[in-house]
TrEMBL record:
Belongs to the peptidase M24A family. CDD domains: MetAP1 (cd01086). Pfam families: Peptidase_M24. This is Methionine aminopeptidase. Residues 81-293 form the Peptidase M24 domain. The lineage of its organism: Eukaryota, Fungi, Fungi incertae sedis, Mucoromycota, Mucoromycotina. Cotranslationally removes the N-terminal methionine from nascent proteins. The N-terminal methionine is often cleaved when the second residue in the primary sequence is small and uncharged (Met-Ala-, Cys, Gly, Pro, Ser, Thr, or Val). Its EC number is 3.4.11.18. Keywords: Aminopeptidase, Hydrolase, Metal-binding, Protease. It catalyses: Release of N-terminal amino acids, preferentially methionine, from peptides and arylamides. Its cofactor is Co(2+); Zn(2+); Mn(2+); Fe(2+).
């Protein structure tokens, strides 16, 4: 998923509020340490072995090269896309096992970083537009693009882990939201509805189906549970580029981000992390979907 406008830069360790009950449930609201601007490009990065192939932006901190036309995937490219998607899924499952009280998101980043490298791939987020880490970790009220730091996960948190890998010239991308310890019933329901939105959206995908129909399914199910759909982000094409056309606006999208309250987001001083404006929790699930004339295939399932 990407910002509707190009991202600027990102953050430092999170400062947190107190664990308390509020209108959205019982959880700890995540806050920035301060409102002072942060240049994430100056933050230390984990090393990458020289032997690994890496995307062009890994060296200069640039972003995707947006072409004016939709890239068409050839039959010869599909096996490589499958491999990248399957590796992303494997790494996400590894991250899921680490979602335990007391584990820091920086530790999750370290383990994911090392395992992606061990598989001969590059962690796609690393230095994309200057992003300083190898994975995005978004906790509780953070909608997306949370930067791993030294805050330990707490009993009752929910966390989205967004994994993208660059393998043999292709990106594979997936994310999911996980429960940490004993999450209250309202948090569990949020995560459940978000996952169901993704499943229902994928189920109607196929040749000739308009993007707006996909979004209609998501919004109808989200609203039936009393949730809003974030409009801060959009879906995107993926392949040789991390992000490419087509853009699919997130509130009519197959990468649903649901919020307990307002869908409006607030950009932190790091210019990466986006949290909900009212402190309600947010959950997200994401898959890569390949649509051909004859089939619909989820590459990251």
């Amino acid at each position: 998923n990407i910002l509707k406008t190009p991202p600027r830069t990102r953050s430092q360790p999170h400062n947190v509020g107190t664990h308390a009950s509020n209108r959205w449930g019982s959880f700890q609201r995540i806050m920035p340490a301060s409102l002072q601007a942060i240049n994430v490009r100056t933050m230390p990065r984990r090393p990458i072995p020289d032997r690994l192939a890496r995307p062009y932006y890994a060296g200069d901190g640039s972003s995707s090269k947006w072409e004016p036309t939709l890239p068409i995937v050839s039959l010869d490219e599909i096996p490589s896309l499958r491999q990248a998607g399957q590796l992303a899924r494997e790494i996400l499952e590894l991250g899921a096992k680490m979602c335990l009280p007391g584990v820091t998101t920086d530790k999750i980043d370290a383990v994911i970083h090392e395992n992606i490298i061990a598989k001969g791939a590059y962690p796609s987020p690393l230095n994309y537009s200057g992003f300083p880490k190898s994975v995005c970790t978004s906790v509780n009220n953070v909608i997306a693009h949370g930067i791993p730091d030294d805050r330990a996960l707490q009993d009752g948190d929910i966390i989205n882990i967004d994994v993208t890998v660059y393998l043999n010239g292709y990106h594979g991308d997936t994310s999911a939201t996980f429960l940490v310890g004993n999450v209250d019933s309202r948090g569990q329901e949020l995560v459940k509805y978000t996952k169901e939105c993704l499943q229902k959206a994928i189920a109607i995908c196929g040749p000739g189906v308009p993007f707006s129909e996909i979004g209609e399914v998501i919004c109808n199910h989200a609203e039936s549970g009393g949730y809003s759909v974030s409009e801060e982000l959009s879906g995107h094409g993926i392949g040789r580029e991390f992000h490419s056309l087509p853009l699919i606006y997130h509130h009519r999208n197959v990468i649903p981000v649901l919020c307990q309250g307002s869908p409006m987001g607030v950009m932190w001083p790091d210019n990466w992390t986006i949290s909900t404006v009212d402190g309600g929790r947010s959950a997200q699930f994401e898959h890569m979907v390949l649509i051909t004339n004859n089939s619909v295939e989820v590459l990251t399932d």
